[in-house]
Amino acid sequence: MFDINLLKYLKSLKVKKIKQSKYIFDIIRKKYIKLTPEESVRQSFIQFLIKEKNYKKSLFRVEIQLEINKKILRPDIVIYDKFGKAVMVVECKAPNINIDSNAIEQIKRYNLILKVKNLIIVNGLKCIVLKYDNHCNDFITRNEIPDYSELMNC
Questions:
Q1: Domains plus CATH for the chain?
Q2: Are the C-beta atoms of residues 151 and 79 closer than 8 Å to each other?
Q3: Pairing mode, strands 31-34 and 21-26
Q4: In this predicted model, what pLDDT tens digit does every residue of 103-143 receive, in sequence order?
Q5: Per-residue pLDDT tens for 39-83?
Q6: Which residues lie closer than 8 Å to 150 by C-beta, 6 or more apart?
Q7: 138, 140, 137: which is closest to 129 by C-alpha?
Q8: How many degrees, rounded to 5, is the angle at CA 50 between CA 46 and CA 53?
Q9: Could you tell me the pTM of the whole model?
Q10: Count of CB atoms situated within 10 Å of the CB of 123
Q11: Which pLDDT value is given to residue 95?
């Protein structure tokens, strides 16, 4: 796990007030979403991936619906390759939520269906990156977020 500061991306996001609530513009879904601490992390992390790691906006999907044992799950962010195959799942937590074994188990449940080699959990302050290692047949922790070109070479 390592530190990450997404504050500079949050400042650049479009926010508007409707009645008594604030909404943030989601550039992937192309609509305003109610601003919650988790949503601010999601939108800031999307900006980080696009601006710092050169990810292509067109390859993001947000809160897609998965079903496992008749239970509906919604991963925060799924990144696809140009052929439409999922390559990374991101789980966003509010800054006050610790990244713990529960969060790791949650993202691994998503991966029962998606079968990606890269998992990220981020709360806006801390980040954990897990990459599947074929040698040990399990996920190992990485110390950095892969850039787009590295991810596509996996």
A1: 2-152 (3.90.1570.30)
A2: yes
A3: antiparallel
A4: 999 999 899 899 999 999 999 999 999 999 888 888 899 99
A5: 999 999 999 999 999 999 999 999 988 888 888 989 999 999 989
A6: none
A7: 140
A8: 110
A9: 0.91
A10: 23
A11: 93
